Amino acid sequence: MKDLSISVRGTTGRITLQRPDALNAMTYDMCLAIEAAFDAWRTDPAVTRIVLDAMGERAFCAGGDIAELYQTGLQGNYAYGQKFWADEYRLNAKIFEYPKPVISFLHGFTMGGGVGIGCHGSHRVVGETSQIAMPECGIGLVPDVGGSLILALAPGRLGEYLGTTGTRMTAADAILAGFADLFIPQADWPSLIAALEAGADTDVLDQAAKPPPAGHLAGDLDTINQHFGGETLGDILNSLRHSGGEFASATLDRMARNSPLSMACCVELLHRLRGPSLTMAKALDLEYRFTYRAMEHGDFLEGIRAAIIDKDRAPRWQFADQAVPSASVSKMLMPLGKEALKLGETQMTTRNIGFVGLGNMGAPMAINLAKAGHKVAGFDTADITAEGVHMVASAAEAAQDADVVISMLPNGDILRKVASEVLPAMQPGALFLDCSTVDVESARAVAEKATARGLLFVDAPVSGGIGGAAGGTLTFMAGGTAEGFEKARPLFDIMGQKAVHCGDAGAGQAAKICNNMILGATMIATCEAFALADKLGLDRQKMFDVVSTSSGYSWSMNAYCPAPGVGPESPADNDYLPGFAAELMLKDLGLSQQAAEAVDADTPMGALAQALYAQFVQQEDGRGKDFSAMLPRFAGRGRQT
């Protein structure tokens, strides 16, 4: 095709982009042709490596050709864009895992789709004119084509900065951030490509590499880490707004041009990816959740209109005040179920799942598993239903023929009782995954019984509340064998954003109660501080502005502020209807003190927090309210005796 040259020269497969007048933007047909070449050369012994380059002086590839995406989306045809992105992401994954060297020469602009084909190979060469960027938030998307994986692996919080601002990287910056490997003067590129085509080893690239001219990101990294380390977009903007200085001002200007929803989802996406479970498949899956919805629910069509069609550079973004509700972020990144991205051999294996305990947390978790295509049989003592879940008459029936049995139960005694019914009904090699928050000893006792029956057991209590269960954004703290954790991992990816293998059986419960002991104590301290600020005549918003960007920073303050109308939206803005009920916090603090007593640990702050929540729930009006409702308790009275 005229837009693309594909040939074999010597032992090298050569792909050259040939749309210089369009900055080599990649069309759908080009994407399919490149994939076909990679597929053909994968098992061809005559082709030992692939070289990617482009015609013209201005760009390797400045992105994807989005005009047709806009036209079809404007007509309400979202399927074309969804297919385009799915096929493009499949190509990105193939390049990332390709078994032969893939050498790309990235001159000029390399952005968006150009990153997808040029920055996932084994040898990524940049030169004097290279400018690499992920500017997707400026058109209502998120950094995609696997670029989120690179951003998540970038030093410190550089990924959040590059993703939300779309900052262009020089050669040195791109190497620092992980988008490139080698700086080679561009005058040397033709001879190196000729040598590779003649069969030279890829070592010739290392020998030709030179130190790149200095970039600017290395000098800004400490400042970037300072401002972009928050949990949400709101934290980042708050830090920048109260900083002052040239860096903060310039960064806020860049971010003001971009879609707030896209930036908020970019931050959340990178936080979900960062950690030991990061894979290209996971990155592309999360990206596709957003792009699948981008036309219908996001800002993509408006972003293209303002940038490409009308060129007025005045997009009318959703959430123009940049205050993006967490529910809107969760909606864009929820699992797609049967519409989820499929990458050939990485397609999901459908499992038979038994789910016992379909309460406020369990029901949405089970629904997300069913939407993802799993067969879910559910049981609960209450007469309830859950979309896509086949309800059965007993816990034992839910466990029959199940590959995995998941439980979400109120306490350790009930867990032991359910285990006595479920374990005998399970097939050898199946997994019992308990997501309840219970005492450590109950978890270990059930694990021992499961092991004796030839079953796998993982205790994996969750953090994230009802909203996290519904939105698929839970964090799992898992204890058990490595084999059990790996069997559970694909389900964790559907139900949550992160799973950490904490150790042997019971370690997940230990991590959860330690985490919630900290949470309970810091929430009390946060509420006390707001009440004190009131009595000192300090405005609550000013208090938040100072503390949220100072050493008093905490999750209780920044992400779950107990003061109505202050900080990001939280239960405080909904009359303290519970996201995490005060009686559940009391339960978890009780578990922490029970564990502390068992191992003779001194936890006076945890004990005081338990006593305060016991008084709040049992003697005052705290039952049925969010655990952050401690604030009106303190604000409405003087010193407690």
Automatic annotation (TrEMBL):
| InterPro entries, A to Z | 3-OH-isobutyrate_DH-rel_CS, 6PGDH_NADP-bd, ECH_dom, HIBADH, HIBADH-like_NADP-bd
Transmembrane domains' residue ranges: none
Please state every residue range assigned to the domain named 3-hydroxyisobutyrate dehydrogenase-like NAD-binding: 506-631
Q: Which GO terms describe its molecular function?
A: 3-hydroxyisobutyrate dehydrogenase activity; NAD binding; NADP binding
**Domain 6-phosphogluconate dehydrogenase NADP-binding, first and last residues per copy:** 352-503
> Pfam families, alphabetically?
ECH_2, NAD_binding_11, NAD_binding_2
Enzyme class, spelled out: oxidoreductase
Q: What is its EC number?
A: 1.1.1.31
From the UniProt record, list the reaction(s) this protein catalyses.
3-hydroxy-2-methylpropanoate + NAD(+) = 2-methyl-3-oxopropanoate + NADH + H(+)
Show where the Enoyl-CoA hydratase/isomerase domain sits: 13-331
**Keyword Oxidoreductase applies:** yes
This protein's UniProt keywords = Branched-chain amino acid catabolism, NAD, Oxidoreductase
- Pathway named in the protein's UniProt entry: Amino-acid degradation; L-valine degradation
One of this protein's GO BP terms?
branched-chain amino acid catabolic process
Q: Which PANTHER family match?
A: 3-HYDROXYISOBUTYRATE DEHYDROGENASE, MITOCHONDRIAL (PTHR22981:SF7), 3-HYDROXYISOBUTYRATE DEHYDROGENASE-RELATED (PTHR22981)
Q: Which NCBIfam families match?
A: HIBADH, PRK05617.1
Q: Family, per the entry?
A: Belongs to the HIBADH-related family.
- What is the name of the protein in this document? 3-hydroxyisobutyrate dehydrogenase
Q: Which organism is it from?
A: Roseobacter insulae
Q: What is the lineage of its organism?
A: Bacteria, Pseudomonadati, Pseudomonadota, Alphaproteobacteria, Rhodobacterales
